[in-house]
UniProtKB/TrEMBL annotation:
This is Heme A synthase. GO terms for cellular component: membrane. It is an enzyme of class 1 (oxidoreductase). The keyword Metal-binding applies.
Length: 324
């Protein structure tokens, strides 16, 4: 009943073209990735408790307020990051409206609805992170949830561009798809290890001596080595995948995406190495988080290209007659 009423309401909106749908889907990716990067900016500027409560910024106020213990800069950075949530929410709402109005297939609609649902969940996780005083594991969960949203948004973009009346086409053999999935698992492990490094590292998100942030009590060198080894495994799996795809033959789309993934992972590894040997400067932390989102987008795009939905054209009448 509610779904029918929603569809009738959406019908009053202009019918979005496929190009418009793809632009909105791209905006969803950029907004989800962007708020991950701005979250890193909040952390390295020690602005994580610039708004010390949630959903309000200060008790009794949703906006920054002059406060002796909270610098105005920290308030501005954290509040600006919270305001970006509205841009993320807007993009998520627009993609739902677009695909529902265009009567896209169920798969696309489900992916679209995951965007506002995930955004709300992310906001709640962010609130828990603030209310917990930036406990390291809540920060880790917050970042990993953002990375998951970037992955889903990338798959949504791929699905939006496929024809609803097409047929599924498997572009590579099943073992190579499983190898791609395994590389995604290695990527996930690398991300988790990276958040643990963050949990033990120097950028806690707040430097107040009156409210010290609890940190992960594991030697950071140990965590860095684990993080690096998982990254090497991730890269090795991608290289092995490349040899496998070259042996069986691959489409141009898959080749381009594979090259982009490997290049992105190598660039991300270089940033991480420089970051470690220069004692984790704030600017490189932000670039490293941005690189992580780029790796996720590239890997998700590669995964999506291995099973696509293609338009099937009906044979000409003469050809059909000859076949009969």
């Amino acid at each position: 009943m509610l779904s029918r009423a929603f569809v009738r309401l959406v019908d009053f909106l202009p019918l979005p073209s496929l190009r418009v749908q793809r632009i909105i889907a791209l905006a969803v990716i950029l907004s989800q990735a962007g708020i991950s990067v701005t979250g890193a900016i909040v952390r390295v500027t020690s602005s994580g408790l610039g708004c010390p409560t949630w959903p309000q910024c200060f008790p009794g106020s949703f906006t920054p307020t002059a406060h002796a213990e909270v610098p105005a800069l920290h308030q501005a950075v954290e509040f600006s990051n919270r305001m970006l949530t509205f841009a993320v929410t807007l993009c998520a709402a627009l993609i739902v409206l677009a695909v529902v109005q265009a009567r896209r297939r169920r798969e696309v609609v489900v992916y679209a609805w995951l965007m506002p649902g995930g955004t709300v969940l992310q906001a709640v996780i962010g609130g828990i992170t603030v209310r917990s005083g930036l406990l390291w594991w809540t920060v880790s969960v917050h970042l990993l949830a953002s990375m998951l949203m970037v992955w889903l948004a990338t798959l949504l973009f791929a699905k939006v561009g496929e024809p609803d009346d097409g047929v599924d086409v498997v572009q590579v053999p099943a073992p190579l798809r499983w190898l791609t999935a395994l590389s995604a698992v290695a990527m996930t492990g690398t991300l988790i290890a990276g958040t643990l490094v963050t949990g033990a590292g120097p950028h806690a998100g707040d430097k107040s001596t009156e409210r010290p942030v609890a940190r992960l009590q594991i030697e950071i060198v140990t965590l860095v080595h684990a993080h690096a080894e998982l990254l090497v495994a991730y890269l090795a799996l991608l290289v092995g995948l490349g040899f496998g795809l070259a042996a069986v033959g691959m489409t141009r789309a898959i080749r381009v995406r594979l090259i982009v993934v490997i290049a992105t992972v190598c660039a991300q590894a270089l940033i991480g190495i420089v970051q470690y040997f220069t004692h984790v400067p704030a600017a490189l932390v932000v670039f490293h988080v941005g690189g992580a989102t780029a790796c996720i987008v590239a890997t998700a795009a590669l995964w999506a290209s291995m099973r696509t939905r293609e338009q099937v054209t009906a044979p000409a009448p003469e050809a059909a007659a000859r076949a009969a």
